[in-house]
Amino acid sequence: RLCLNGRFLMEGPCHGTGYHRHFESADLSQWLCEGENRLEVDVLHVTDGVWISLYRESTAALWLDGTLALPDGTSDVIVSEAEGWDCARAENHFFREFPGFIRSIPPVEEVHGADRFVDVPVKFFSEATPQTQGFNEYGVRETYSLVPRPIPPLSMGEPQKMHCIGHGETWAEYDAGRYETAYLHLTLSGKAGTTVRLHTAECKAKQVGGRTVKGLRDDPDGQITGPYDTLVLTEDSSLSFDTFYWRAFRYLRLEGDAPFTVSSLSFSPYYYPMGDEGRVVCSDERFNRMWEVSR
After folding, report:
1. Do 264 and 185 contact (CB within 8 A), yes or no?
2. What are phi and psi of 287, to 5 degrees?
3. What angle is formed at CA 48 by the lines to CA 47 and CA 49, rounded to 5 degrees?
């Protein structure tokens, strides 16, 4: 995940194939400011054999390169040099596998209090040549070539609020109004030691014959269940949480083991930059409604 001066720009890389591994690229010109600019890269590293890195190793790896165009027409390397980079590990943020779900689903998150970072050493290896070959964590050449992303990247929309459909001292439920693919932004407060679970679901579910059965997305009856993130307040203060990766949901449920207060909750839609180029109109109104639903 790439950020410039605190602003989210993009994430990646997109999935590779049996022949290639992909890299992302972006023009940062419009977001640069006069003077010093801070470039930040968040790298997801999941242990316990849940995921492995892009380079088929258990240690997180990152390849980053870039140039700055100067007024005289020349360019200068800005991000591939070792100098000027700090590397730190988030000691309060964890990623867990959720029991009963396939491993291709991104792991759930667990956050303990405010951000705490610990400096870690960085091992730099030789510069990779993207179109011909890459390097693994030991600097050994891989058989996979690095090629650009083959499809457009997703775009981040403006934050939107969710509608509260019910709440109590230790729980609250929200409705986004429709099925969304988005990043979540949450701030809550409570006593130290309070644990809050954050459930997201595309629809509500019901118990039928001892089984959990998913309902329709516009059916207001049922329960919001499924994988959940865990937020732990370590001090008597507020905790802010932004999901590391996007989620697909309509409903959201917060449930705690002690009273808590939601100060703010919003989501930023994350979608492919696609627009309407035409429409279909049919004499059968059922097909017109199907068209509107599937747009």
Report:
1. yes
2. -70, -35
3. 90
Rounded Cα distance, 32 and 252, in Å? 36
Beta carbons of 270 and 246 less than 8 angstroms apart: yes
Give the pairing type, strands 108-112 and 75-77.
unpaired
Helix or strand (DSSP H, E) at 267: strand 260-271
Indicate the residue type of 143: T
Q: Which helix (H) or strand (E) holds 294?
A: helix 285-294
Q: Is 136 left (phi over 0), alpha (psi -120 to 50) or beta?
A: beta
Please give the pLDDT value at position 177: 92
DSSP 288: H
Q: Give the pTM.
A: 0.80
How far apart, in whole angstroms, are the C-alpha atoms of residue 126 and residue 139?
A: 7
3-state SS assignment for residue 36: coil
CA distance 109 to 198: 10
**How buried is 107 (Cβ within 10 angstroms: 0-12 exposed, 13-18 middle, 19+ buried)?**
buried
Q: Please tell me the predicted confidence (pLDDT) of residue 139.
A: 52
Are 3 and 9 a contacting pair, CB within 8 Å? yes
Q: What is the pLDDT of residues 11-42, one digit of tens each?
A: 888 877 767 778 888 888 889 888 888 888 88
Would you say 1 and 8 are in contact if contact means Cβ atoms under 8 Å apart?
A: yes
Q: Are strands 108-112 and 228-232 parallel, antiparallel or unpaired?
A: parallel
- Which residue has tokens 């396939």? 102
Measure the CA–CA gap between 9 and 186, rounded to whole angstroms.
Answer: 20
Query: In the structure encoding, which two tokens stand for residue 211, read together?
Result: 């089984």
Quote the DSSP letter at residue 30. Answer: G
Q: What span, in angstroms and rounded, lies between the C-alpha atoms of 178 and 109?
A: 24
Q: Which helix (H) or strand (E) holds 95?
A: strand 93-96
DSSP 37: -
